[in-house]
Amino acid sequence: MILVTSAAGGVGRALVKDLHARGAQVRAFVKNDSQAELSRGDGATEVVVGDIESCTDLARAASGVRVVFHATPTSIVNELALARSLVEATRASDVEHVVYHSVIHPEITEMFHHQEKLRVEGIIRESGIPFTFLRASHFMQNYLDFWEFLLAGTLPYPTSPDQLMGVVDVEDVAEASALVLTAPEGHRAQTYDLSAHELTRREMAVVWSRVLGHPVSAVRLPPSVVQNPLHAVSAVAPILARSLLSTKLGGLPHVLRGMQDSSNARGVRKWSPESRECYRRMMEYYDGHGLPAGDMAVLPRLLGRNATTYEQFARREATRRVASR
After folding, report:
1. How far is Cα 56 from Cα 60, in angstroms, rounded to an integer?
2. Which residue of 70, 150, 169, 307 is 20 to 30 Å from 104, comparing CA positions?
């Protein structure tokens, strides 16, 4: 049995589906009944509902499993207590291997989110439990929070559109994770960079322009938009106005839906002030420095194929969304 924590998250859902397709027995750990229904639909063999920050719930989820995949929800800032609880739960259940979903370049000291994951790696390493660390780059899917704006001709994000970002497809991350989880013996004490390639958001906008068949402009939102969505208005308004004029107001429904959807991207309204501030500081770092890819030779080697390119990802997602209408 393989335990997947945060099983209703972006990576978690893709991973449960992938493991199910491989015939693996999967236990999904989620926080509420609605997420439990999602996990059952994704193919989870068992579902445990509980609080990931509860030692008791985590121990219950880990009981009787052989391998654990652990990903911390983005809204949790302080991961160390959770990491210690995870180690305690895995020891009590004689878990054979832990796969920890970390982050690319956790050594960057300016970002608490990254530093915290480096500390968690240390806790797991020092526990003596066999481990694998997966250091994933920025997800291509992160920009889909602004899908309706893309349809209106704008790709906004709270970072500079000229900074270079290493990116990776969540589905590639899930596939690589599944390969490690189903054959952990060959991946003990390994740390893998999961990066596909690098590009700026202006280059992403060019890709979306080709895929969607209309011009898409990359727009910088101030990082403070994480705390107050109204801070986006001055940045987005001029470009959206041009888009609406060029489409004779045909893009207005997309703009209205985009404003509604993006104001609570990733459920940010329910995050604590500390979580929002941590995320804002991370966006501020990306805004000034970008986030280069790691070793881009690793992911193809794990997958046994080329990693998904940004254009392949964009075309796949556009096709899916058209089909789901």
Report:
1. 6
2. 150
Q: Which of 116, 136, 156 is the last residue of a domain?
A: 136
Q: Report the alpha-carbon distance of residue 255 to residue 147 in Å, rounded.
A: 10
CB 65 within 8 A of CB 95: yes
Q: Which residues form the domain of 60?
A: 2-136
Amino acid type, 73: P
Q: How far apart are the first and last CA of the chain?
A: 36
Question: pLDDT digit string (tens) for 144-159?
Answer: 988 888 988 889 888 8
Task: Kindly state whether residues 274 and 149 are assigned to the same domain.
Answer: yes
The vertex-64 CA angle with 58 and 70, nearest 5°, equals 45
pLDDT digits (tens, 9 = 90+) for 250-287: 555 655 555 555 555 556 556 677 777 888 888 899 99
Rg over CA atoms, the chain: 20
Q: Say whether both 151 and 44 belong to one domain.
A: no
Pick from 220, 232, 224: nearest CA to 277: 224
Predicted pLDDT of residue 248: 46
CA pair distance 316, 194, nearest whole angstrom: 20
Q: How far apart are CA 205 and CA 216, in angstroms?
A: 5
Are 178 and 19 contacting, i.e. CB atoms less than 8 angstroms apart? yes
